[in-house]
Structures are given as C-alpha cells and as structure tokens.
Amino acid sequence: MNKSITQDMAYRQSLMKYAEKYGVSRASRKYNKSRSYIYFWKARWDGTPDSLACQSRKPHSHPNQHTEAELKLIRDLRRRNPHAGLVVFWVKLM
After folding, report:
1. First-residue to last-residue Cα distance in the chain
2. CA–CA distance from 48 to each of 42, 61, 68, 94 (Å)?
3. Domains in the chain: how many in total?
4. Is 2 contained in some domain?
5. What b/e string do you get for 38-77 counting C-beta neighbours within 10 Å, with b at 16 or more?
C-alpha cells in the first residue's frame, strides 16, 4: 500500500509493540485503553503499520438495493423527463 502513516496508525503501532513486549494488561494501563481495544487491534496487526489503518464500515451490499435493471430504468426516466419533480418521478417509477 502506498499510504502515509497517520498519527493514529503510529500510535497503535507503538501500542502493539509495547503490548507484545510487556503484555496486554500493562499496555492497557500505560496507554489508558481497554484490553478489548488492544486485543481488537492485535488480531488485525501483522507487524506493519498499514494493518492498523481504519477500515471502511460501509456495507458491500444491501438486500433492498436497486438492481442494475432498476437503475437503468431510473436513469432513462430521468433523462427523458429532466424537469419532472421528485413526486412525479416517484409515482411513474412505482
């Protein structure tokens, strides 16, 4: 990954190294973080700062999301009726 190391990542890296050397309980007291927080990041940590980056919480899919056919219908209808209001647009799609 070609990302810069943020302060949070550097902080977590030092926390992980300390926890590895002295144990989770001692690291918890020194860094004033819960043990569950340390175990959470320890499970992700592979020795590199990149593994300690925050990951997106955005879902990959949703059961009620539009299908490609529905999205095409919406785009076509919007293109054909550029001045229609949202209510008219919604009624036509329903």
Report:
1. 45
2. 11, 29, 39, 51
3. 2
4. no
5. beebbeebeeebebbeeeeeeeeeeeeeeeeeeeeeeeee
User: 30 and 18 in contact (C-beta within 8 Å)?
Assistant: yes
48 shares a domain with 23? yes
Domain boundaries, position 86: 66-94
Whole-prediction pTM: 0.59
- What is the residue type of 28? S
Evaluate if residue 19 carries a pLDDT over 90: yes
Structural tokens at position 90: 């919604």
Q: Is 23 exposed, middle or buried (0-12, 13-18, 19+ CB in 10 A)?
A: exposed
